[in-house]
What does this fold into?
Amino acid sequence: MASELLHQIALTLISGVGDVNGKKLVAYCGSVEAVFKEKRAALLKIPGIGTVTVNSIHRQKVLKRAEEEIRFIEKYGVRPLFFTQAGYPQRLLNCEDGPLLLYFKGTADLNAQRVISIVGTRRATNYGRRICEQIIADLKPKNILVVSGLAYGIDSCAHRKSLECEMETVGVLAHGLDRIYPAQNRKLAEKMLEQGGLLTEFPSGSNPDRENFPKRNRIVAGMSDAVVVVESGKKGGATITAGLGNSYNRDVFAIPGRVGDDSSRGCNFLIRTNRAALAENGDDIAYLMGWDDKQSLRRKQTRMFVGFSEEENRVLNSIRESGEISIDRLVIRTGMATSKVAAALLNLEFEGVVQSLPGKLYKV
It folds into this structure.
């Protein structure tokens, strides 16, 4: 296990590999340890792997640095999560550029049934903070894990209110776990370790450099079911996170703001361009996500009293047997044409029997 962890960490330290090629190397070689033992000629045959990368793989420097990181995580009780392990946030597996390895410290289940990311401007207004707090209070009964970036403004507000509501909350960092940025959030971060946690892809010693924040944002978007933008400038980091959420087929919501306010330009833009659904509170989000208890009751009643066509029943039974399933798998399982499966799904959604999920999946 120690050898496996050593090579997992080392793989993330190889210059020029990255998340996509790192997964490709593991897939071609059969295991992470095999990557470092594979012959040079064989590595060069892997698409996207060039001479510079192969030279880096065969250098021992990354293994020595990985040894240092193991000592750090053992000393401070950090939990490493490689992308092939069960504890790794499974929603990130649907993201091609999901991190190879994450470092986590805390108590939260990163694969909670319901995960929501709340993001926004660092220069939050009183209106933004009030709406953010209201959203979290509304969602408290839904048993939701709240994720954000531990930044000033809306991020910090989301974390604090989650703690106040006794909801678990996870901060995704743009640096290593040996520091907290901004430093003013240290006490907040310490409380989160007991009621959520801190998560990062960066090893100890990593600074909060500018280029790290977009990387952080893709984790915030990818590990959630929905991204909620409370306040944001048109070019703010929150709108970037929303764009990433859309690219990952996540549901994206934005809180509308007053026309002309700088802090609302991003949200209004997302809504106006159909990049986000308009939400005014947590109840709106719960309803649109299918997390509303009344909706669940209505779906159960509908199943009891509504008659469906033969094709709809075939689709419905396949979904029930699978739990969650994509339209492609439904076509295979039912033997029906894609157009007929899509029509049946649409009717079943209208009846409130079937619910669409992020990643183009369906469930009853």
Summary: The chain has 17 helices and twelve strands. Residues 115-289 form a domain with the Rossmann fold fold (CATH 3.40.50.450). The two ends are 40 Å apart (CA to CA). The chain has three domains: 2-76, 115-289, 293-363.
